[in-house]
Amino acid sequence: MQETLHRIKNSKWLRNSLPFWLIMPTILVLLVVQVYPALYTGWLSLQEREPAGWTFVGFKNFERLFGTSQFAESVGHTIVFLVGYVVLTMIIGFITAFLLSRKIRFTGFYLTLLFIPWVIAQIIAGLVFRLLVVPDYGLLSGILQNPAIFPPNGLSILTAVTPRPWIGDFPFPPSPAMLLLILASTWRALPFVTLLLLAAIQTVSKEVLESSRIDGANGWQVIRYIMLPLMLPTLVVTIFNLTLSGMNGVGMVFSLTNGGPGTSTQVLSYMLYTIGWGQLQFGRAAALALIIAVINWLLITGTLRITRVEKRSI
Amino acid sequence: MRNWKQILTHLFLILACLFAMLPIMTTVLISFKRQQDITRKPPVLFPCDTETKSFDISACRWAVEGYQRVLAPKPSEDTLLGFSLTGNMIKTYLPNTLMYATISSLLVVFLAGTSGYAFSRFQFRGHNALLKGILAITGVPLLTNLLALYQMAVTLRKSTLPFDDRVFIIVVYIGFFLPLSVWIAKGFFDAIPRDLEEAALIDGCSPIGVLTRITMPLALPGLLAVFLLTFVNVWNEFIAGYLLIAKNEYKPAMFGLYDFLGQNIINLQVIAAACILIALPVVILFLFARNSFFKALVEGAVKG
Predict the structure, then answer these.
(1) pTM confidence score
(2) CA-based, 20 to 30 A from B135: which of A5, A159, B14, B197?
(3) What ipTM, to 2 d.p.?
(4) CATH number of B88-253+284-303
């Protein structure tokens, strides 16, 4: 009797503390690799490196960051990049997913081929596109650098100058290198978007679509008034996912353009790298990192609000 | 009418596949060219032209020069094939990447499995706060943490504590890819009906027994998906490996590739060959396990 009671008590204790033991290792790793570094970066953003060590300088790093024209320019590049990349990926991704969702043959085959770019590393994807447009020797350079096709001197994407901006200093129209960066990023993100949208389209109930057909809606109206509204949560999640990966991905810039020509493809994440490891201004880099992190958090909170993951997970 | 629509659908999808595959195919083509055919103006797609004809299949000048330069085979009598591969890429960088990817994804599966199970099956104080906290962490940009991790590595290297680049980078990779994996694993556990576990408990199975005999076998496909996803992510990761590892002999393949780019600005076939060699393993892995990838991606994105 005594023994049984003891066992029950024991197992209750185990059951109560089991979640703790299961989660603790994960929390420990995240504290070391994610939470502590994030807090450290916050501290770092208020410091400056002096020969004797770090000194507190208040918000001077932020002031200097905002003071340079480089920051405003990079924000511009990032906006141009993100808008181009997200819009292009969403449109092609939606069309592809929509077509894949129809009852046709070879869907699995298409999906497999379409998906391969996603497995290719960012840095390799950048190189693959770079190989196409290397000045003089790239396979596309033969066409692009032909003066008869692109007058007056032909177009060498990796060295072409940025066109004169239309409005103030905002880098629009983008440089050819930026367009290539957008194209290469789209290439790599497209599979992911297609897959998510395909999954969403497949959850739209067939009956709803059919009954709207019977009510006389044409194909476009079905997409516009039935399908897209029903898919809205997924569309939003996908857009935020894309924006986040676009904000933070730096590998593609590294291997494709190195931020150049000039600074015409220098997005915020690449600027962070050049300030931090290029100029060894870690305080200022930390300030920039915090700004990027805040933008990210806003995006994530937005995602949570819209999809109501908060409510579902309880 | 119906037929036309079908044909147009297939046409668009074939075009999309071409857009996806063409850059890769051209890279494969480049990797098999000779230096003379690389540095020609204007460039040619196939190195198959002769003086009289623009394309002659028998005159194609394919070469494995690029691969030779990457792999650097040297005759050696000790090995089975009569030569050994001495290139840094195959000798150092790729094995490093393989090791980092395997160890970190195994550990990620273990950690994400245990904590995903806990989040899915137990209600406890701080449950939702922790879960949201983990999601919030995915929003910290990699480069933000790298600033601090870099300083951490520098300090640790100077200190008297035992410090190993390899252990450090593996822990960092685990930390980077764990948050999303926890969410994916939780989603997979949520999909397993609780009735099964409760029935086993009533039949006298211990809580641990339920976990190891009922839940884990059912969760295995999901955990495999987490493993594959993390493996590919670590394999393809560049910036952390580039910045955090000081010793050259511990650097991963992506660093080796970036290094190659510096040395071979004009030898496009070498760069292309290196790209193909590094990408091939994960592409093959994907082809064999594509459904696992699809499941994990949808799960991770829709929830996280």
Answers:
(1) 0.90
(2) B197
(3) 0.89
(4) 1.10.3720.10
